[in-house]
Structures are given as structure tokens and as C-alpha cells.
């Protein structure tokens, strides 16, 4: 018998076998949708809020963040545990399902214009914190973000043993940064959609949710990255459909992008144990036509 918060972490690891690989290569996927709130960001929410409570950083019971949804869900869960009130600034374009889940968990949602991007949502969150004294969780700069993934790294080692390649998407950059420090000898691949800036591209809109950055993450040293994979929306959504049809795995678009990145990178190697992080499931993106590859 477990309490609900015991369901954060210790998620399943499965081997992906339906795709052609170079000799000796194996791909293992960490299914983070099995966390309590349905995504990898439960780990982040638990760590950031718990550490803030321990330090006495939350003075008036108010917490604020700018989020595409999964961080907001993770924060809302843990704010509920500590009887805190969360306000989340969310660009309008993001999935209705994630916003509904945040509201169900007690969060107040403030939508910001899609065309003004996540940077504007973040500015509004900072302004609210300055005006009210709310605790700004600051997922894009707080070292508590990459510090949230020690447990994930230990689970991967326990599940796989030898890790030759680690593949993770970048939204805030925290997951990749946290894992990269634990797998320094592995080939470390960071994944972004087209419209993200890590490979030197120009910030632009994309359908792949949960990953993509508009400014370089403050806590991410460039020398931690061995390869950047920039994946188109079409390729990410194609892999979402193929995962469902070939593996029975219902995963989100950032998982599809991560799998495509792993498949691209494995072509350069043989006899590799490759670990790919699948952050969440497809059911919270049905309103975004996640199984419609062309977005029509």
C-alpha cells in the first residue's frame, strides 16, 4: 500500500524493439507518464516546492510560475500537499487538457497571448511575484530544477546498468542538465523542435509541446552537450503514431521527438545501450490532434 506521493518516481523502463537499429544497439525508454501527475515534471515540482518550504522561501502561501502545463501540474500537486496557492501563466496555445488538469488540482490559470511566447508569460509571473511577494519557482534558472533528477539517474542505472547514450528533450533544460552530470562518460544528446534556439536557429512556433527554448538555459553548460538533435513536428508526430501502432505506447510529441533523435544518433554507433526519456503521454494532447501528423 502506498500514499499518492509515493507514486512520484520509480517509473517503468521498457525496451523499444520495433525500429531497425545498428548491430548491438538497444533503446530503452523511461516512461515518465507513470508519475502521479502524469509527467516527468512531478519530480521537478516535488523538489522545488519541498526545498523552498524547507528553506522558508514561501512567505505568504503564494507560488507562481510560467509553464506550458506539465510543470504547472507537478507544482499544483505539491502545492496542494503543502496547502499553498499556485498561479500559473500559460500561453494560450498549449493543450486544453493540461490546463484543465492544473485547474482541477487547484491552480489559477492566467493565459497570455500565444504570439508573445513563453518569455512574456515568464515576465508576467515575475511581475506578479514582485507585486504580491509570491514565491517564483523560476524553473528556467533555479538550480533546484536540474537537482530534481538524481532519483531519475539512479533509477536508470538500476534498470539498465551500462548507459552509453542518454537522450533527453530540452524545455527548461533541467532534465538534460541533471542527467548529464550523472552520465558524463555517455554520449549526451539534447533534443529540441524546429523553432528552438539550441542549434543556432531562430525562435518560432512549433506543435511539439514541452520542449523548445527561446533563450539558452542559465544552468546548462554548453560543454555538457555532445549532440543537438533538432526534430521537425512532422517527424515527432510520426514517431508518436508509430509508437502507438508498433509498440502500444501512447506517448506525447516530445517523446516522439526524443525517439527520432535517438534513432538518428544510433546510426553512428554499434553495441550501445541508449536511454531515451519519454516525458508524458498522448492523452493530454488529443485537443492538439497529436495523431494527425500533418496537423490538418
Structural class: alpha/beta
Strand fraction equals 15-25%
Oligomer: single chain
- Total helices: the number is 8
Form type:
globular
Helix content: 25-40%
Largest sheet: 6 strands, mixed
Q: What features would you describe in this structure?
A:
The structure is a single chain. The protein is α/β, with parallel strands linked by helices and about 300 residues long. The protein has helices at about 40-55, 70-80, 95-105, 115-130, 150-160, 175-180, 235-245, 255-265; strands spanning about 15, 25-30, 60-65, 85-90, 110, 135, 165-170, 185-195, 225-230, 275-280. A six-stranded mixed sheet has the order 1-2-10-7-8-9, with helices on both faces. A four-stranded parallel sheet has the order 5-4-3-6, with helices on both faces. Helix 1 packs across helix 2 and helix 7 packs across helix 8 (about 255-265). The longest helix is centred in the middle third of the chain and has 16 residues, at about 115-130. The protein is globular, with a radius of gyration of 18 Å.
